[in-house]
Amino acid sequence: MNSQTVLNISNELELLTGELSGMGGLVEDMLSDALSAVITYDVELALEVVDRDAQLDLLKSKVERSIFDLIERRQLKGQNLRQALAGMKVAVELRRIGNLARSIAKRTSHLKDYERSDQTKSLARMGRLVSSQLKRVLDAYSEQDIETALDVRERDEEVDEFYNSIFRIMVTYMIEDGRKIGACAHFMFMAKKLERAGDHCSQIAEIIHYSETGDYPATERPTIDDV
């Protein structure tokens, strides 16, 4: 393979990374706005998040077409092929996080009649952690930063612990006051969605490791059942 071809492939892979960064930015906004909608009871913002789902689908399809085209035209091998396939896997994970953000946003309209100041504070703290995980792992993907990716993966245990804490708090609220059962059930649902979003961030971290090394991390990632 001549030097010009190598350069062209490198440039095209950089363009692919740019497309995925755009998709990641949309998912970051969806997750952030979904949480804001729930916390501030903003039904209009929640509907905007739901509407962005179609845009996310279009971006995912565009990324997949770009990857298939690149693999076919350049007959990619080795690390170049791993990077292209990793991009496709990252797109899938981002799509799933977008789905979770949409699910959270859709809960907003169900909560308008509930007093939920304590619940929203807990969910907001967990949401900030997951949003930070998402931003860091997307930066790690753009910069091919294995060290940061592995740190994101390691911190997934914190997300699991947050979920377990919220679950216990909500169960206590429901036992103490039956009038809070409806609201607490919704908040437990949303906390679970955030926990799953954290899992997808960890999976992106593992994809980064595979893309750069050819192997997945040697140690197993803790699951919520292990916490």
Pick out the low-confidence regions: none
Highest-level CATH class? Mainly Alpha
Distance between the termini: 49 Å
**Count of DSSP H/I helices:** 7
* CATH architecture label name: Up-down Bundle
CATH topology: Methane Monooxygenase Hydroxylase, Chain G, domain 1
Specify the CATH homologous superfamily.
Answer: Phosphate transport system protein phou homolog 2, domain 2
Describe this structure in words.
By secondary structure, the chain is an all-alpha fold. The protein has one domain: Methane Monooxygenase Hydroxylase, Chain G, domain 1. It has 7 helices and no strands. The protein has helices spanning 3-40, 43-74, 78-106, 117-143, 146-154, 156-176, 181-213. Helix 1 packs antiparallel against helix 4 (117-143), helix 4 (117-143) runs antiparallel to helix 5 (146-154) and helix 4 runs antiparallel to helix 6. The longest helix has 38 residues, at 3-40.
